[in-house]
Amino acid sequence: MTTLEKEQKTSLRPIHTTGLGLHTKALHAGFNPDSITGACALPIYQTNAYLFPSADIAADRFALKDPGNIYTRMGNPTTAVLEERINAIEGGVGAVAFSSGMAAITAAILTFTRPGDEIISANTLYGGTYELFHYTLSKCGRTTVFVDTNNPAAFKHAINERTKAIYVESIGNPSLDVPDFVSLSEIAHQAGIPLIVDNTVGIGLVAPIQFGADIVVHSATKYIGGHGNSMGGIIVDAGTAPWTNGKFPEICDPDPGYHGLVYPTEFGNAAYIVKARVHILRDMGACIAPFNSFMIATGCETLPLRMEKHCSNALAVARFLEGHPAIESVSYPGLSSHPSHEMAKKYLGTAGVSGFGGIVGVRLHGGYDACKQLVEGTRIFCHLTNIGDAKSLVVHPASTTHQKLPSKERSDCGVFDNFVRISVGIEDANDLIKDLSQALEKIR
Length: 444
Ligand SMILES: *Cc1c(COP(=O)(O)O)cnc(C)c1O
What we know:
This protein is an alpha/beta fold.
């Protein structure tokens, strides 16, 4: 071996991130440097398909006996790095990426449910998820019962023989409720069903699998990517859901699409995540583009650093707004006035970054007119519907994201006519406070 070859061999050692911290995982997990070129940055495998080494191997790949690549709709080496990175951060047995958060949530439900099944969900959900559960999935025969996010007993009470999962968000968007994960996972497991947590807003602050979640879903569009330039979604499987207890024929019945394959027999505790990829992603077709995986995996490298700044800025902005005369109330889990403050103190800050997240909600004395003036009057905050961008963002949900919901359903989600959602970015906190101050000054 030449010296150069030796050097290359040493520098190509994959880094095993098991047991390492969040910052290290976010940078290194999932990536083994390219052995041919030595490229240190993640290569973009912009290919639809992969050469089969032989006819036998081709047949084995289609029969799921060989794990090699087939077609980018079911998997891609660039995307695999993103999947493994988020899997490492969340502590799962496997992950699958999708074209968006909504695609990931849709797939997360379709992978294990059948028509007639029911889900018990927190009532303070991201608007898109609420619409999916309330309207679209119910047309596909999966109904959802919405209960008070902050009342575990309400979840327990709503469970019946058709119930197949409990669903919550780690920090509800936009009401910012933090549910009691331990109680909810105990309730779910007593009933023989999984707890599913959307950790889009809480990533880096809490890893719900540590507290009993069985499945974690993400919009990677938000904090993971972090720069508002690429859509993506991910499912992470903890490998802990009780699929073989007789309640889940959709996971356990032989799959006619794969010659009667039985997922738990073949793939053990990875049954769910394998099915999500080889059956649901394959059939839905909502695969992420390799370029987006590259952008999001690169963004993920700085996720913990950005999250720290999002949290400290959001707390500063929340404290400033709390004392402002134009503001009726401020909603931020880091303030003792928030109904979830105790839960937030218990769960947030346990996954590597301490703080209470980057989203702040405000209700204004002046109603919708005042909200309009605020969203139009800021100079640094971008007026748009997104969260988790490095830049600060502001929106009036009642007239935009939640416009189509009846007003009772809107207010149940925490979206009032005088409510503005602020996604606090990583600018200098003083600049953000000055900008909000000048915008609020104009409101009379
Ligand atoms: C944005 C968001 C989604 C949907 O993700 P997309 O990538 O926009 O499809 C789901 N859940 C939460 C909490 C979100 O903020």
